[in-house]
């Protein structure tokens, strides 16, 4: 399982560059219940992300079993993800990788939890690093229990940086909002500049791994 760390950690670092979720947390911080609403946003997003990960894994596993040759199929998926990353890198050059929409209406924890789930499900088709991480997890051929444990750990590690927002607000109050807004602006600028490059590199690595397997029968890692 430890051999997955060099593969999963870079994917996690790319995946966690999510200005959409951070922007939603800042919106929640500006509401009448900043800690409860921002926590609910994050909880809904995390629950949905974990659930989507299980569904993705089951779907890939069923495709694998149906074709009766799991290992090559995993590399077919990896190649497809690599090509999608290359396409997304080109599409993100216009600097719109961080676009988001503000929720309308009065915020409350239940509504924020549901909206966090909706935002996540809408964004899942574009969460290419997450797809790649799940594909790598399936390729590792771990037991179901260990695979679920790794998926839980991945999602908790993903949520941890964002959890600092409600924790900081609980400790320092809403006066922290201007600082958070500055951080969000920096994050948006970073994502708009770095995401195309990161997706390009990820696409090249995934595609190269799959192509090497098809040509030689051995993967890069």
Which class best fits the helix and strand makeup?
A: mainly alpha
The ordered string of helix (H) and strand (E) elements is HHHHHHHH
Low-pLDDT runs of 5+ residues are: 66-70
Count the beta strands: 0
As for the number of domains, it is: 1
Q: Helix coverage percent of residues?
A: over 70%
Query: Roughly what fraction of the amino acids lie in strands?
Result: under 5%
Number of helices: 8
Radius of gyration over all CA atoms, rounded: 18 Å
How far is the N terminus from the C terminus?
13 Å
Q: What is the chains' assembly state?
A: single chain
Q: Biggest sheet: strands, sense, closure?
A: none
Cα shape: globular
Mean pLDDT: 78
Could you explain how this protein is built, in words?
- It is a single chain.
- The protein is mainly alpha-helical and about 220 residues long.
- The chain has one domain (about 1-215).
- The protein is built from 8 helices and no strands.
- It has helices at about 5-15, 20-30, 35-65, 70-90, 110-125, 130-140, 145-170, 175-215.
- Helix 2 runs parallel beside helix 7.
- The longest helix has about 40 residues, at about 175-215.
- The protein starts with a helix and ends in a 5-residue tail after the last helix.
- The model is unreliable at about 65-70 (pLDDT under 50).
């Amino acid at each position: 399982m430890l051999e997955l760390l060099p593969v999963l950690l870079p994917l996690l670092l790319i995946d966690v560059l999510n200005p959409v979720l951070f922007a939603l947390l800042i919106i929640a911080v500006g509401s009448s219940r900043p800690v409860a609403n921002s926590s609910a946003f994050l909880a809904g997003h995390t629950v949905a992300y974990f659930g989507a990960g299980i569904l993705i894994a089951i779907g890939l596993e069923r495709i694998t079993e149906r074709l009766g040759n799991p290992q090559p199929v995993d590399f077919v998926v990896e190649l497809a993800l690599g090509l999608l990353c290359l396409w997304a890198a080109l599409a993100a050059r216009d600097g719109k990788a961080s676009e988001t929409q503000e929720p309308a209406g009065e915020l409350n924890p239940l509504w924020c939890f549901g909206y966090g789930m909706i935002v996540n499900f809408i964004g899942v088709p574009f969460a290419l690093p997450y797809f790649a991480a799940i594909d790598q997890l399936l390729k590792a051929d771990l037991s179901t229990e260990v695979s679920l444990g790794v998926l839980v750990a991945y999602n908790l590690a993903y949520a941890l940086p964002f959890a600092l927002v409600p924790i900081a607000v609980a400790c320092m109050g809403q006066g922290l909002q201007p600082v958070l807004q500055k951080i969000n602006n920096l994050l948006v600028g970073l994502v708009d500049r770095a995401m195309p490059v990161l997706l390009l590199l990820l696409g090249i690595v995934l595609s190269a791994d799959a192509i090497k397997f098809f040509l030689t029968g051995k993967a890069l890692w």
